[in-house]
Every structure is written in structure tokens, then in C-alpha cells.
Amino acid sequence: MIGKAITLAILGGTGQEGGGLALRFGKAGHRVILGSRDAARASAVARAMNETLGRAAVSGTTNKEAAAAADVVVLTVPYAAQRATVEEVREALRGKILIDATAPLKPPKVARVQLPPEGSAVAAIQALLGGEVRVVSAFQNVSAHHLRELGREIACDVLICGDDAAARETVIGLAADIGIAGFHAGPICNSAAAEALTSALIAINLRYKCPGAGIRITGVARDRELLRDSSE
Amino acid sequence: MIGKAITLAILGGTGQEGGGLALRFGKAGHRVILGSRDAARASAVARAMNETLGRAAVSGTTNKEAAAAADVVVLTVPYAAQRATVEEVREALRGKILIDATAPLKPPKVARVQLPPEGSAVAAIQALLGGEVRVVSAFQNVSAHHLRELGREIACDVLICGDDAAARETVIGLAADIGIAGFHAGPICNSAAAEALTSALIAINLRYKCPGAGIRITGVARDRELLRDSSE
Hints:
Two copies of one chain form a homodimer. The first copy, chain A, is α/β, with parallel strands linked by helices. Chain A is built from eight helices and nine strands. Chain A has helices at about 15-25, 40-55, 65-70, 80-95, 120-130, 145-150, 165-175, 190-210, and strands at about 5-10, 30-35, 60, 70-75, 95-100, 135, 160, 180-185, 215-220. In chain A, β5, α5 (about 120-130) and β6 (about 135) form a beta-alpha-beta unit. In chain A, α3 (about 65-70) packs across α4 (about 80-95). At the A-B interface, α8 and β9 of A face α8 and β9 of B. β9 of chain A pairs antiparallel with β9 (about 215-220) of chain B, so a sheet runs across the interface.
């Protein structure tokens, strides 16, 4: 626990990746609000999650209301909806941390790295929002498949990139709350590494017929609390 | 062993990364020719390597002669010298596999991802060479520090990207010869992931004060022969 329970909005929380994060954060003791274009659907999905969790940790509403009510906002919508969603909730983000898990996947060739001309999809959002929001890139490389298997250890680390070190540290704490080791990996432009890696890991999934390849960082002394048996 | 000993040219073989690969390939039983702009220096470095290895596995000459005499050519020069070196040895590459370990680091900000406008430094070389050479991206994320500690297990996997699956497979075999697990990670454009990751890992090295952060791929059944205790 980062010290206290907070309220997280998961924009795109009815999707696979967002839903997985919502379940994990709810299980860890945080309050979670699923945001969606469809508030009724978000409420229904939240109810099902509460049944899974055995307690009322999750609620659902519009993206805008979810962002407004949250301490920290997590963006998990598809790349094609990333900018429009941010623009829609922009007023509600002011002064907050926005965790952006976007990878610029362009269907159908999602196993090909296709970074945007700006270099990084998440860095482009930080440029859009300017100093009013601290954007932190995280969670691109954790498979939704593994997130949703609540009984299972998540054998995957995440790269945490952002221009504000304190915001990165908060996100590393939130990742630790759900059993994921996050590593300070440099400024927001370095999000390009996590974004490109997403397509490379999809290529590995296809080639080796596995549902959720990920990475572990080696060569760094790991927090003993997070050290697990990493033999897959 | 990929089945037989081959001759590898390591262009930039007097450098840290190239030298580390040369020592490992020499130790594995392959013949290695260090290429350098300075043939005398390459010969001197090769002599020192042979003393370390306890046998005459390594020789040194110009980049051009090294490439001409090799079965497989490995490029480990700094990014600023990548294109000029390839142009210099181009004739000698025809029909061969070129393993390009280049990451587009731009000093002094080597811990910032700065991919070239084409998206990937290695993909740009494949575009330059066209169908006459099969370019495979590999070894960007293995620290020279660990390569040179010959007694030490290399706790790092590598992403293997290239448009030719058979060439990728050959490089995975060569990586296995030196104790490194390589993973098919998609077409040559996916080299952007390994290239960007290089800067992110340098950022991790700086932040966590370690000499050689790397990655392991998780969630994939690993070749048992390559499975090591990965607790760092």
C-alpha cells in the first residue's frame, strides 16, 4: 500500500487492460471508478467486479465524472481514442497525475512497431497537457491476461517514465500495491521504449504461442518484498 | 554451438561492446576477426584477447578485410559511425547476414530515447542495403560490462528482429552459443524496441547505480538448456 487508500479513475476501464488494472487496484484496497463512454455499461462491469472481489471497491460512470472524482487518473483506452479522451477530461486532470498506459498499436499490424512521428504517444499527451498535469507512462507491458487472473503472480516488471520524479515514485508505489515492480526509466520521451516493446512482445506472443510475454529487469538490486521466484 | 565453428567479423571489435562479444564468441569456439579503422590496434587487441582465452581464436585487421573474410558480420561501432562503416564494407556484405547491434545513442544525453526519423537505426541500414544483405538486429541490450566478465552468467535476453526468419534463427543460435537467449521479436522495424530500450536501461543504470541492467522475457516457455537461476 502506498500508505493510504486513494481513488483511481480507470478511463477505458471496461476494456481488457483497464479492467485488469481495476480488479488489481480494487483487490489492493483502493477505490476504483471505471470510466467509459457508456456509463451504464461501466456500472454493470463494476458490479461484476465487486462480485469477483467480494466487496464494493469499484463503481462505474462516464470518463469525465470518473476523472473528476479521482485522486489519480489512469488512461487505458485504445490508441485511436487516446487524444480525444484526454481532451474530453482535460479540465478534471488539472493538478493530478495522469498514468497513461497507451501503446500506439495500429490494427491490424499490432505486432509491428509503429511509433508516432512525435516519437512517443504518451510524450505527445504530456506535450498537449503542459505543466498542468504530471503524465507518467506505465503498464504498457503487463498483459491483460495476467492482470485478470487474480490468483496469479504477475511475472512482469514495468518501465515508469515521466518528467516529474515524485510522480514517477507515486506510480511505482501504486504498481507495488498490485505486486508489480516498477523502475524509474527516465523522462517521458523514454515511454517510446515501453510503447515499442508492446509490439515486440505481441510478436513474441504470436511466435511462441503464449498469451502474455513480459519483461523482468535484470542486473538491478530488487526490492526484496517484490522478489519472487521468476521461473516461468 | 550452432553446429559448426564459423568466422565472425566484429566491426568496431576494439570497443567495449564489440570486444565483449568477440571474447564470448571466441570462447564458444568460433573464429573471430576484429575489424577496426586501425588495423594495428585491432591486431594488438586480438593478441590480448587470445592471451585471455588461452588460444588463438581472435585476429585483427581493417573493417573491410574483416568483413570480406567472415561468414557473418557483426556491427558494433558507435551510432555516429554506423552508416559510414556499412558503406565502407558494403561489397563484402553481399549475400551475408549482418548482425547490427547499433542503438541510436546521441551523447551526451544517452539516457534519453532519441530514435532517428526513420524510426529505427537498424531498419535504416536494411533499407540502405536492400535485398542483398539480410540484416538482423540483436545484442543492443546486453551490457558490455557483463559480456567481458567471462566467468559470469549473462542474465539478459535479447530481442532478435529481422525480415528474414531463417537469418533470425541463425542469430538466435549464435546468441545461444554464448549463453544468451534470443527471442524472435518481429520484423526489422521492431528493432526500434531494442534501440529505445537501450536508453531506458541506461537511465535505470544511472538511477539505481548499477553497471548493466538488462531484461529477461517472461511468460514464454524457455529453452531448458538456457534456463538459469534468474534471481539477481
